[in-house]
Design a protein that fits this description.
Blueprint: E1 2-9, E2 12-21, E3 24-29, E4 42-49, E5 52-57, H1 72-76, H2 82-89, H3 92-108, E6 113-118, H4 121-135, E7 138-143, H5 152-161, E8 164-169, H6 175-187, E9 191-196, H7 204-207, E10 214-217, H8 223-231, E11 235-238, H9 240-244, H10 252-258, E12 262-264, E13 267-268, H11 276-289, H12 296-304, H13 306-310, E14 327-330, H14 337-344
Parallel strand pairs: 1-4, 5-6, 5-13, 6-7, 7-8, 8-9, 9-10, 10-11, 11-12
Antiparallel strand pairs: 1-2, 2-3, 4-14
Helix pairs in contact: 3-4, 4-5, 11-12, 11-14, 12-14
The structure holds zinc ion.
Length: 363
Amino acid sequence: MIVDGAILDADGSRPGYVRLRHGRIVEVGQRGTASDHGRERRLRGIVVPAPVNGHTHLADSVSVREPPAVSLAELVRPPDGYKFTLLRRTSDGEKRRAMTRALRGMRRDGVAATIDFREEGLPGVRLLRGAARAAGVRAVVLGRPLRRPIDRAELDALLAESDGVGLSSAREESAETRAAVARACRAKRKLYALHASEERRESPRDYLSPRPDLVVHLSCASEGDLEQVRDDGVVVAVCPRSNALFGRRPDLATMERLGVRLVLGTDNGMLRPPTVWQELEFAYLASRLARRPVSASYLARAAFVEPWRLLGTPSEARIEVGGSTHPLALRLPPDDPPYQLVSRGSGAAVIRTGSWVAGRDGR
Ligand SMILES: [Zn+2]
C-alpha cells in the first residue's frame, strides 16, 4: 500500500509518500514519485508514528457516568475520594473488563501505547497487564506501592512487574517516600512520575526533588516553575480536558515558548474517555479561547514524537525504513499536516492496515 501526501515525525512535517507492507515501512520517498505498477493500493493521506496517550488512569473507566459536582480533592484524592471508594467497591473482573474496553477503544483510535498510573499496588499492576494483553495496546504501567513508610520488599516486587511508579503528589507523599521510590526506580531503570501543581501551585523544590522522569498537570505552575522543569529536562504530561472540568488550564503557549518537553494525556477514565484525538483538538481550541495560542506542531509533537523519546525508543518517532514499527496512516488532506492532525484527526481517519487490523496484511 502506498500512502502519498505527507509525513510528520521527529523531524517535523514534509511532503512525501510511504510504502507499507504488512504494516511496516518499506520505502519512503518524494511525494508523487512512487511507482506502483498499477497493482498496489494507493491512498492520499498523512503517515505519522502512532500516538501515545501520555497519562491515563484507565481503571477509573469502571464509571462512565457524569462525575458528581464536587471538588477535585473530593473526587480523586486518596484514600477516600470518590474514585478510590469506587475502585474499592468494584470487583477485579469488572475493573479488568473496563480497562480492556478502554484499551480497545484506544486501539480503534490508532493509539500504540498508554502511560497509565495504576493504583492499588502490585495486584493493580497485574490487572492492567492482563487487560492490555487482551486489547493489543502497550500499557506502560506506573504502579503505586501501598505501604507507608515504603516497604522495600513490596516496592521491589512492584517494580519487578511495572514500568515504574506514579505517585499521587509531593503534597501527599513524604520526602522520604519520594526519595526511596525515585532511588529504586533509578536503580532498576524504570520511570518515576508524580502529579504536581494541579489544583494550586506547588514549589518545584518539592516535586523536582528527587528529579522525576515525568510530572503530570502543572496547570497552576508559574513561568519560573516551568523554566526549572525545562532546565531539569523533566517531561510534562498535560491533560487539558480533565483540567477544564475544574476550571483550570495548562499554559501551553508558555510551555511551547520555553521549550518544555510535552506529552498529552487524557487522565481519569471516569472524567473523560481516553481519546487522544479529542485531547489534541481541545488543547488547540482551548488555547485559542484563552487567547494564549499554542501551535499545532507543538501539540502534534506531544502526541506522536515526545512520548517515544520518554519511553527510550526515539527511533519509534521516525517515519523511515527501520524507524517506527507502528506507523499510522490517516486519510487526511496532506496540506499543513500538524493542523490536520489537531483539527481533523479521529479514529475514523485511521486507515486500517497492518498491525491495526488483526490477521490482515498491510498491502
Ligand atoms: Zn492523573
